[in-house]
Amino acid sequence: MQTTKFFLKDKDVPKKWYNLAADLPTPLLPPLGPDGKPITPDMLKPVFPENLIEQEVSTKRWIDIPEEILEILYRWRPTPLRRAIYLEKYLKTPARIYYKDESVSPAGSHKTNTSIPQAWYNKKFGIKKLTTETGAGQWGCALAFACQLVGLECKVYMVRVSFEQKPMRKTMMQVWGAKCLASPSEFTQAGRDILKKMPDTPGSLGIAISEAVEDAVSDKTGQTRYSLGSVLNHVLLHQTIIGLEAKKQLAIAKEKKVDVVIGCAGGGSNFGGIAFPFAYDKIHGKKITIIPVESASCPKMTRGKFSYDFGDVSGMTPLLAMMTLGHQFIPAPIHAGGLRYHAMAPLVSQGIVEGLLTPKAYDQAQAYEAALLWAKTEGFICAPETSHAIACVIDEAKKAKAEGKQKVILFNYSGHGLMDLVGYDKYLSGQLKGYCLPEDELIDTLKTLEGFPKANARKTGKW
Amino acid sequence: MQTTKFFLKDKDVPKKWYNLAADLPTPLLPPLGPDGKPITPDMLKPVFPENLIEQEVSTKRWIDIPEEILEILYRWRPTPLRRAIYLEKYLKTPARIYYKDESVSPAGSHKTNTSIPQAWYNKKFGIKKLTTETGAGQWGCALAFACQLVGLECKVYMVRVSFEQKPMRKTMMQVWGAKCLASPSEFTQAGRDILKKMPDTPGSLGIAISEAVEDAVSDKTGQTRYSLGSVLNHVLLHQTIIGLEAKKQLAIAKEKKVDVVIGCAGGGSNFGGIAFPFAYDKIHGKKITIIPVESASCPKMTRGKFSYDFGDVSGMTPLLAMMTLGHQFIPAPIHAGGLRYHAMAPLVSQGIVEGLLTPKAYDQAQAYEAALLWAKTEGFICAPETSHAIACVIDEAKKAKAEGKQKVILFNYSGHGLMDLVGYDKYLSGQLKGYCLPEDELIDTLKTLEGFPKANARKTGKW
After folding, report:
1. CB A171 to CB B108 under 8 A?
2. Distance between CA atoms of A455 and A306, rounded to whole angstroms?
3. Is B149 close to A379, i.e. CB distance below 8 A?
4. Less packed terminus of chain A by CB within 10 Å, N or C?
5. Which residues of B280-301 are buried (b: 16+ CB within 10 A; e: fewer)?
6. Order of strands across the sheet with A179-183?
7. What does each of the 463 residues of chain A score in pLDDT, given as a tens digit?
8. Helix, coil or strand: residue A443
9. Is B171 helix (H, G, I), strand (E, B) or coil?
10. Other CB atoms within 10 Å distance of the CB of residue A47
11. Which residue from A376, A380, A418 is facing B418, i.e. has the nearest CB?
């Protein structure tokens, strides 16, 4: 009998989050306002509560996780670390493949690791209601769940086309007591303006963000705030509980070192969650390959620019220093909705520039092929985003075989695919092809960055 | 910090299944053939492999679980035992509520506990292919998954209306390499006959069973067999791993006794799985209330007859001694598809007659109300079948409060509801009502049992 599951006791759940901003060789570049000057924490107050703004700008290495947040996370945390021995056997690789199973959360993905703290800090600050946007629905579900447990109202603006195509995501949010509206809606000025011009628009994430932010800042009582599911520093901070737990579990599995750490990366929170605690080790001398995996249809990390850019399509957010394809880039409609974001979190982006992280891109045909092999060997059905990480894991395991090395590979199993079976169906019936962004489109979209402030981070040359 | 999750180590997974047939006060009544005489194991050979027929008729108390089966079950077993402290707090009950979480299996329910052994024993016996029927798709998914891992072909006849309404279930089966056909199909004589008469029929479980059995027995090479997901003795046997694990976990939770054990019951395998190991304790003197929970729309246990009856609508199976509403009963189209079976497993049925088990019925409006309270307090979205058990748990917890007793309540959380959100949507939008079988319909349907052989089991008067 071979043990394939490694559990922690509740009491061994990490009590602090890890903040990579404390350890990056170059200090993180500040967000800039419309005037090109660094924005102050005060300017964020209408949008986020002060306690989360503090975390957003913090350079403290370790930040305490309040006991009340841990009490909620205990419902599904610590999550299991599993070893994929059946995939290993199939590949005949000498590598040992471990995965952190974040799919066990009630909302089905890692997103709850930040939705719970965000809801809790808002509640603590006296906020009564959170607004957010959601594309495919993962984040909307996670925030609805968190608001239900913490005791906040929740309003989710869901991109109309997803609202109509994925009605079950809306139902999940409603089960957890949230209000879910198709965006654009009649409820906000931004929504009404768009509907007037384009009554039949399918909506977009950019529009939905505009609506959610407007809804939050226009509450005259000051009791509504906005919540974001990825990209920002405090969101990635909350996710580091994944990697911190994984470290303890690898020790239980008697692994002394990790050679490769892999996570898919859309906005960067899932990847940062598993990777940053290992990036700390790498900064402090350990030899680890750390790979954020993106979709070849939205290759901001492998083919984008490190530049200041807007976080949203309509240019409402501050300018952030990111690996980006330009904020007006509209990626192809691949099934991994979570990977369809034009830019990468500042913390991950700077890690790439400094050579700490080495991104790779896979197209969705490769990803579905990997997902089917995963289901065939390990038995579980993964999310379309997760399948991109698995495609990379398979390549790394084959490489270890070619090199004859007993490498330890760790990846984040960010979510299950039970709400996303349509993509599997299309792949199985031959209707789904790989898609890689053509060079001319890339050149076109990067033009939107002309004239933006330059972003520089030191290339350490160390890694 | 209060511990709410109780894990077993892999090595502590039970190594034997428990067979209630060894301990029932009255020996189990034998199945009868078309001539009214007990059928012999030989007569079952075209349908099931001999090793499973042996288990079906065994009266041995403990049956070894082969190590190779355990190796597969370890992928998700032991499943967690959890304590529902948030529901307890909400109800202000002195009761301690525990639930065994079977929703963590890759196919999402307890069904894999028997699909794996069934596939393995068939493979061992030299079988190459399994056929089965499925209604809502839970069982079809579990068998597809098992055949994929064990290395068998799998063909699932899915009731046409479900095939069309729940296309994602079909996709799941295909991801695991199974062939899934809408039933009635052109592939079997039974299917073709029906299609000729009723080209637009939505299909039924009865028709699908006929097709799956015909497919199995008509394979001239003798390498195909049929597989059933509930009702039969060997199926319930395989599920007892649930209750056996739960016992060990309650000991870890430092509970010395259990007062109430609850499981929803459609064909009886989920209920038998959690309950039989505790029924053993009750037979041997412990005071435990054991409640199988059915749908009020299909009340075979609380309002049916204990009689010999067919297992299927078309009368192809042997006659089994069961609590039944008559094999031609067509229940209302409630969302808990797994509870829409006209009869109850012989082992559970006889336990009811003997007074060992005390069934209760809930209608689906009560069940959805319970499911929403569960999502609000515990955070998880449960299957519509499971919600019936939760409705009963809530009543028992309220009773404990009224009595001022610190009871321990255990129930089986048989599956998650992520593939069944349509019912939640209907409930939330006010389109779903409770439904209780009217008395005149009950009288009508029971008439189909007239002239069937009598079934008697001793009412012990002890419980």
Report:
1. no
2. 6
3. yes
4. N
5. bbbbeeeebbbbbbbbbbbbbb
6. A179-183, A153-159, A129-134, A224-226
7. 788 999 999 889 999 999 999 999 989 999 999 889 999 999 999 999 999 999 999 999 999 999 999 999 999 999 999 999 999 999 999 999 999 999 999 999 999 999 999 999 999 999 999 999 998 899 999 999 999 999 999 999 999 988 988 889 999 999 999 999 999 999 999 999 999 999 998 888 888 988 999 999 999 999 999 999 999 999 999 999 999 999 999 999 999 999 999 999 999 999 999 999 999 999 999 999 999 999 999 999 999 999 999 988 778 889 999 999 999 898 888 888 899 999 999 999 999 999 999 999 999 999 999 999 999 999 999 999 999 999 999 999 999 999 999 999 999 999 999 999 999 999 999 999 899 999 999 999 999 999 999 888 778 778 8
8. helix
9. helix
10. 19
11. A418
Q: Hunting for tokens 């031959």 — which residue is that?
A: A430
The answer to whether B308 touches B453, Cβ cutoff 8 Å, is: yes
Residue of A11, A70, A148 lying closest to B376 (CB–CB): A148
Best CA proximity match to A206, nearest among A311, A104, A97:
A311
In angstroms, the Cα distances linking B101 to A73, A356, B219, B396 are 17, 40, 38, 19
Q: Please, which residues have CB within 8 angstroms of residue B293's CB and are 6 or more apart in sequence?
A: B262, B263, B264, B265, B271, B359, B360, B361, B362, B388, B389, B391, B392
Is B75 within 8 Å of A168 when comparing Cβ atoms? no
Find, in chain B, the residue whose alpha carbon is nearest to that of A83: B75
Structural domains in chain B, sorted by start: 5-12+64-108+234-447 (3.40.50.1100)
Residues of chain A contacting B379 with CB distance shorter than 8 Å:
75, 106, 145, 148-149
B interface with A, Cβ–Cβ below 8 Å: 1, 3-5, 7, 10-11, 67, 70-71, 74-75, 104, 106, 108, 145, 148-149, 167-168, 171-172, 174-177, 372, 375-376, 378-381, 418-419, 421-422, 424-425, 428
Q: Which two tokens stand for residue B227?
A: 């597989």
Here the tokens at position A151 are 């005791």
- Name every chain A residue with its beta carbon within 8 A of the beta carbon of B380: 106
Place of tokens 């894990």: B7
Chain A: give the shortest CA distance to residue B175, in Å.
6
CB pairs under 8 A between A and B: 101
Reported ipTM: 0.95
B428–A175: do the CB atoms touch at under 8 Å? yes
Pick from A75, A148, A171: which is nearest to B421 by CB?
Answer: A171
Say what the pTM is.
0.96
Paired tokens of B438: 């009217």
CB contact under 8 A, A74 and B1: yes
Q: Distance (Å, rounded) from C-alpha A346 to C-alpha A28? A: 8
Q: CA A443 → CA A344, A440, A448, B268, distances in Å? A: 18, 5, 10, 63
State whether B174 and A75 contact (CB < 8 Å): no
Give B143 to chain A, closest Cα distance, Å: 12
Q: Nearest chain B Cα to A7, which residue?
A: B7
Mutate to test the interface with B, among A2, A166, A421, A422 (most CBs of B within 10 A): A421
Tokens of A15: 């009590």
B10: nearest CB among A3, A11, A175: A3
**Between A384-403 and A364-377, two packed helices, what is the crossing angle to 10 degrees?**
80
Quote the CA–CA distance of A149 and A293 in Å, as a whole number. Answer: 32
CB burial class (10 A; 0-12, 13-18, 19+) of residue A135? buried
